[in-house]
Amino acid sequence: MDNMVESIKEIGVKVPILVRPKQNGGYEMVAGHRRNYATKKAGLDGIPAIVREMTDEEATIIMVDSNIQREKVLPSEKAFAYKMKLEAIKRQAGRPKKENSRQVVGNYESADLVGKDNGESGRQVQRYIRLTELIQELLDMVDIGKISFSPAVEISYLSKEEQNLLLCYIKKYDATPSQSQAIYLKKLSQEGKLTTDKLEEIMSAEKPNQKPKYNIHYDRFEKYLPRDVVTEKEVEDFLFKCVEEHHRRLKQRQMAR
Q1: Cα gap 231→237, rounded to integer Å
Q2: How would you label 227-253 residue by residue, b for 16+ Cβ within 10 Å and e otherwise?
Q3: pLDDT tens string 193-203
């Protein structure tokens, strides 16, 4: 934003904003909200604008497309943007026939049309839209990267009550579901078998990516285990034997007391 303000001070606004006339007078901004805000911060009195008549659906689609092109877009922002655009496209196309619930617009299914300009398939668009079914606390975890995208999609199929219970166990064990666990949670939920006991059992299980890792700084052993003499595997075996011997002696001392 600061860079945009400085640029506007130096050379003005290069790309006009897009507005549409309101029925009761004045204009509604469709695209260019950040440019307009930056222009005000730069101290300018006005901003160049293109005035265009458009329907609510057309305005929604343009607004979503302009916002989704930002350099950094949170998963939640993309999810709600895709949902808005999909609903607008469906309204434009009219009510789908019973035999065509997925609704085709031109040569594309509506979800494919949503992702077309962003290089994403209709299936991926639908997966993003699933995130809008998450409770806010879980969605926040997706945005900060604590819960990965794919597990989050599976979790979105849980009821709100089940999601709140899951959140309690995430906090209790400071752990989030893996992809396989999330799929299992969804399956249990759909079968009506996701109990608190099951949640406890799943969330308390140790995951491979959450096992403690030990990093050894080789420089500390260089004096005793020169790199040009021993291999990395030999170093690992040697250190294990040292720990094993230490544990054996410690146990002997405890028994002698």
Answers
A1: 10
A2: eeeeeeeebeeeeeeeeeeeeeeeeee
A3: 999 999 999 99
Nearest to 154 by CA among 130, 125, 174: 130
Look up the pTM and report it: 0.62
Count of C-beta atoms within a 10 Å radius of residue 106: 9
What is the average pLDDT across 76-80? Answer: 90
Beta bridge partners, 108, equal: 105
Q: What is the Cα–Cα distance from 178 to 146, expressed in whole angstroms?
A: 11
Distance CA 181, CA 210 (A): 14
Integer-rounded Cα radius of gyration of the chain:
28
pLDDT in tens, 139-152: 999 999 999 999 99
How far, in Å, CA of 49 to CA of 90, rounded?
29
Contact 122, 104 (CB under 8 A): no
Compute φ and ψ for 54, nearest 5 degrees.
-160, 155
Contacts of 84 (CB under 8 A, 6+ apart): 60, 63, 64
Report the 10 Å Cβ neighbour count for 117.
13
Across all residues in the chain, what is the average pLDDT?
83
What token pair was written down for 53?
Answer: 């008549």
Q: Strand 108-109 relative to strand 104-105: parallel, antiparallel, unpaired?
A: antiparallel
Pull the structure tokens for residue 167.
């959140």
Distance between CA atoms of residues 146 and 51, nearest Å: 43
